[in-house]
Amino acid sequence: MELYLAILTLAVCLSADAQFLHNDFKINGCSDTEKESVCGSDGEEIWHADFIQQMGVNTLPDFADALRFPGFYESSIAAQEACQQNLAVCIKAYESPPEEMDPPETSIYPKNDVQLGVENSLVCHVTGFFPPPVNISWTKNNVVVTEGERLSRYRPRNDGTFHIFSSLDIVPEERDIYSCTVNHRALQGQAQTKIWGVPETTAVSPRLGPAVFCGAGFTLALLGAATGIFFFIKGAATRDTDMAEKEKHFMQWTYQ
């Protein structure tokens, strides 16, 4: 599949308060089977064209101020027509060169500090890959799991590659082992897998914590009391021995 990147626009603009610089971008790309039109700021997507639903999609989070992109979808259609024409010209001119691909780099880590029996999330970060399509799957103790799985959108990086986040809701238990497996064309069939296991030093559940720590405190208190009694008795015995020695010497001196 040939891929042609039609337009890459990178602009530097001032924010409303004229104090901060932001990098805005718009990317239009196409292949013989796919279309892509994305715009954003500072490496984060804020809008993309959905050519299946024939509409533009605002991808800002719910808490962000709503933005309007009048005419963006129409201009994306025009850009796609130009992209397809340029794609045909490039294929003919360069005699169908092999598609450039970059393999992903994958890491896995927990979202919060791990405690047994406490809900948490595992995050699988896949970055540095091109082109965008990538497949991510999860396993728990060698069994494929899909419940509680979430996937972010593809996000562009400054070097032209992409990154994406996948997360899985978990409740850590002793000896649990999770894995995140990534498939991408640049890996040439060699899937990339990262494994994460519940650490042996994981803190106990808060439901057990107070009982354990209270028991430990009571034990330490008993040990402290026993140690104090031992030294008290030892000190008393030492004083009695010293007094006996002094009385013995006094009696010897008197009778002399």
TrEMBL record:
The chain crosses the membrane at residues 208-233. Residues 104-205 form the Ig-like domain. It holds the Pfam family C1-set. It comes from the Eukaryota. The keyword Transmembrane helix applies. One of its GO terms (cellular component) is MHC class II protein complex. Keywords: Adaptive immunity, Disulfide bond, Glycoprotein, Immunity, Immunoglobulin domain, Membrane, MHC II, Signal, Transmembrane, Transmembrane helix. It is found in: Membrane. It is a single-pass type I membrane protein. Residues 1-18 form the signal peptide. InterPro entries: Ig-like_dom (IPR007110), Ig-like_dom_sf (IPR036179), Ig-like_fold (IPR013783), Ig/MHC_CS (IPR003006), Ig_C1-set (IPR003597), MHC/Immunoglobulin (IPR050160), MHC_I/II-like_Ag-recog (IPR011162), MHC_II_a/b_N (IPR014745). Belongs to the MHC class II family. This is H-2 class II histocompatibility antigen, A-U alpha chain-like. It comes from Sinocyclocheilus grahami.
